[in-house]
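Reader question, answered in our methods column.
A reader sent in the components of a multi-part assembly and asked whether the whole thing could be modeled at once rather than chain by chain. We filled in our standard form and ran it. Here is what they sent:
COMPLEX SIZE: two components
ENTRIES:
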Amino acid sequence: MNIAQVFTQTLKQSGKKLVVLLPFSWLLVFFLIPFLIVLQISFSESRIAQPPFTDLTSFVDDVYTISLNLFNYIDLYEYDLYLSGYISSVKIAFTATTLCLLIGYPIAYAIAKLPPHTRNLALMLVILPSWTSFLIRIYAWIGILKQNGLINNALMGLGVIEQPLEILHTPIAVYIGIVYAYLPFMVLPIYTNLVKHDSSLLEAAADLGARPIGSFFKITLPLSVSGIVAGSMLVFIPSVGEFVIPELLGGPDTLMIGKLLWSEFFNARNWPGASAVAVVMLLLLILPITIFQRYQAKDLEEQANEH
Amino acid sequence: MASSFADDKKNVHLSISQVVKDFDGFKAVNDVSLDIYQGEIFALLGASGCGKSTLLRMLAGFEKPTSGDIILDGQSMLDVPPYERPVNMMFQSYALFPHMTVEQNIAFGLKHDNLSRPAIANKVEEVLNLVRMTEYAKRKPHQLSGGQQQRVALARSLAKEPKLLLLDEPMGALDKKLRTQMQLEIVDILEAVEVTCVMVTHDQEEAMTMASRVGIMDQGVIRQVGEPVDVYEHPNSRMTAEFIGSVNIFEGTLSKDESDHAELICDDLTVAIHASHGVVGSLGMPMAYAVRPEKIQIKRRAPDQPCNWAKGTIKDIAYLGSHSIYHVELANEKIVLVSMANSDRWSEVDDGPRLSWEDEVYVYWADDSGVMLNS
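And here is the structure of the entire assembly that came back:
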């Protein structure tokens, strides 16, 4: 082996490590370190100063002390507001995810059945709204849903209703907002799954006596589970912590943990309390994230088996 | 196994009559009529794009004929959807359901027959036994080898006891060695269950090994139907002659046409070609003569016959193990292929040493070795 070969060899090996290193350092810098900071704040005490929380460690009279303040977590447990906030967040996120699935699956299915050249156009149409700012799009919904907004004006103009419907600042508006904003995240993974399906499987099912509906439930649906799981997690996980949509479209009675976190942080200026809320929310989401990853791994394994 | 079916044509099981399939002006299948007999294995043989797969898909019900009729066991299949046809297909890709075990795959079709649970279990057991896959019942398809997947696919298509079994390129996904073994095994199984079978293949060897009759398809039309021997020995057109096996074609004009023999004047040869069968044609019309390489003899001395020989030089010898192909170049640069078994090759040819490159030789054949073709 000459020097050049040795050089390329080491380059290749270190290149492989570099490739893995990049996403890991990304996670380290932008996820793990901020999380540790938040975790640390959650164990501190609130104070009126800059920064508005105490240090965990102190070094007084040659004694090094670490004080962990658990009251922020106990508070979460003691005040019903937080508990019901979590429950209501999970409930809203779950309902919204189910709605996204019910609406998104047929869309993904229809796109996957399109002839290949029209598929890309349809996918573009699904993604296109994301090119506008998220915030602006949610604001736009206020104009659509409000008392004298598009929907009410149109329905009253047509004479369908006499009094404007109360949609804005209700849970319905929140669902509309979440479903609207996160639908692409449901459609895309399901589409990616469905489009890979071998059409001869459906022909085989028909050949063996299954009607189209039966083939769908026995073949297509079970084979698209990993797409459904991926889509559902991509909708559910961010929905739980959603702040903008319940804030802009929801009413005072729409309780979501994102909103509580915001008011704890900016209104009450209780950084440690807000941090505790955030940490618990993250722990809450670990379960769905693990499910998501398990299915992703299974999917990859199956793909490896096919080749 | 091959001979009996053509003789007793009493039992037509499947009748394809004047079927046309038009894809936006392109006739993939163009007026095909074909009778398939009870219990036979019929092979549709043709190059890719000849329409054989389209015809098979029409039998399965995945495509609807533009015109014509398909009558299975006395009943028209035109308005019967695939899920109600008593027809099952073994797909080229096998199309085994990846999320089901071998057992579940086979039971899939049976569940649609409203059978009781024990009846389904018995049937699954029976067909698994038939294809010798019993011990793999609990496996998923991706845990099986190609040959095992094929057996499962076959078992699944046989489980419902179809009136007609369709095989789409049955050996397409297998490597060559496994192919030869599975060809005979599948034929044994099909004959054991006495199912009528139509298969599609582009591999003439596969068609000839497995089928009792073959139909040569080309550009949406069936060119010739017959037992493998007939199609090989008596092709009815240049297309079939050239498609099946290799063949030497001599072009010329008809110079003599009697009921029991015909003669052809061919520019490539110094003597006439004499065939021991008559043709339908007029004197002077262009005609081709086809003769298979293994029907041609080769030697150093001029043969003692007035017709059917040529003088040339050996340009190439392709050694193929069991036999060799001699490429003999005639005076006008036409190449004649001659096949000789290697057991003969090693022996001495008319008292001289073994034939070799650049040897001057004579090639000759008998009156009944080839056929005259006018199309």
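What stands out: The domain at 3-241 of chain B is CATH 3.40.50.300 (Rossmann fold). Chain B touches chain A at residues 60-62, 81-84, 87-89, 91-93, 95-99, 108-109, 112-113, 142, 156-157, 160 (CB under 8 Å).
Send us your own complexes using the same form.
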